[in-house]
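Why does this matter for the project? Reviewers at the last site visit asked to see concrete outputs rather than summary tables. In response, this paragraph embeds two records directly. Each consists of the residue sequence and, immediately after it, the corresponding structure tokens. Nothing has been edited or filtered.
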Amino acid sequence: MPDSLPLPASLPADPASARPVISAFASQKFRFFAFVAMLLLGYVHGYNLNARYLQPSSTVDEALTVNTFVQYLLANGLFRFRIPILFIISGYLFALQDNQAFAPRIRKRVQTLLLPYVLWSAIGLLLTMVLEQWPGTREAVRDAQLSPFGDLRVAQYGPKEILVHLLLAPAPFQLWFLRCLFVCNLAYPLLVRALVHPRIWLGVFTLLWLLNVNLWFVESEGLLFFTLGVWLCRTGYDINSRPRWLRIGPMALAWLALAGVKTWMAFQGNGPLVPVMSLLHKVVVGGGMLVMWYGIDDVVRIAMRQRWFVWMSQFSFVIYALHVPMLNYALSWVFPRVKAIPNY
């Protein structure tokens, strides 16, 4: 993300602190997961299910087939570890800069988070307005259901609708990450004070996350994992060494199995399974983070030795910023036409 990339080979901590120097390999993992998370984000927003915007407990009305099962399993299960990992990385990196004054750091975040949020939100709004000029693409925009104002066209917006669309409900809805991250950065001094009692406040933030409770402009997912990243950095926790209690093989099998069970539940319709699905979703996210962070070190080393991969990783933010709403508009135009083909 813009506040954490590009990463140098190694990132020194405050020399006056007890925190260790972050290793070159940890820096490589940060860059690797920032890039991979953006690639997976494209798939997560590009699946072909009738339910276009999946929530943790979303059910689907399609028949259960291998195709629909795999799409849901990946988009709303196995790939959901990515955003929490990005928040942890962002919190860790922000805490590494504690030797700098807070005000200049926030001014930098205005440039790297807040301004890109408004800019890309405006670009999404402009793209929407352009596509609404022709009947075919106007239909695709409407079917994508990205507007908070229903069928009201951008050209019909007043100042209130423009501000809401730009600042609160942008067409590039993935920008919520930047907004949430900026608020977490602003709240950093309060979070540091809260971490004087880490068990209490991390417990509170975990409960908010489990209950899907969001606080105004900050989502509970971002609050929890950004704070966790801050705690990991400030305590000098060794993020490279796998905990002795964690066995990757059994954890990976449990992760896959629980994601599969939750996916099967999604095809059983609304009902008493929905709260269970929501809880399973959180367990799957946590398990995925552990498996991916500690279980694919060899993959990270191989990937980061490839010049093409390192070169491509520079475009993480471009992929993040551009794929929505263009992907959603394109899919809402293509899918109905593909499904109309005989024997599709």
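We now turn to the second protein, recorded in exactly the same manner.
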Amino acid sequence: MTPSFETVDTDLDHPEGVAPGPDGRLYAGGEAGQIYRIDGGGSVEELASTGGFIYGVTLDAAGNVYACDYGNASLMRISSEGRVRTYSTGTPDRPMRVPNFSAFDDGGNLYVTDSGEWGDDDGVIYRVAKDGTTVVWTDLAPRFPNGCCLDADGRTLLVVESHGRAIVGIPIRDDGAAGEPQRVADLTGSQPDGIALAEEGSMFVGCY
């Protein structure tokens, strides 16, 4: 069966990431810090602006947006009413540099990829608790960690390593620590960027 596609809107400023909200609307970011909210008819509202450069966006169950803001080297939190505040800047020993994408686990912890410099293989993944407390969760997937999502059982974080041309799975241990990454897909010859999961566990990978 051939997939069906439709254009929702074209009046956006470099929407690097897109995510559905609990209100049924779509959310995306812009390269001047815009946070867009798009209804089913394609009507676009600028909910807020961080003044930075937005990569991935993720929403919680209350409709708050968590935006990876490359321009401000921060993870920003935007309330459903449009109030903006800095949620995390990384850790004192490893401040955020290129926050790229994030994903929640069932406990409300947010995993945030920081890609580092292309070719330097110095990326890390943070784990941000519900109170904003941030730790470097792992530095063992360093080859430009990019898009991420949890697997179907919520026990493994799937991460695109763009410079490694691969998808790695990082187990989430019972104590919350990161396990040893395992390569789950070799994408040699492509340039993988984003990832999403179907209900039955299939991975869909956007390739630049």
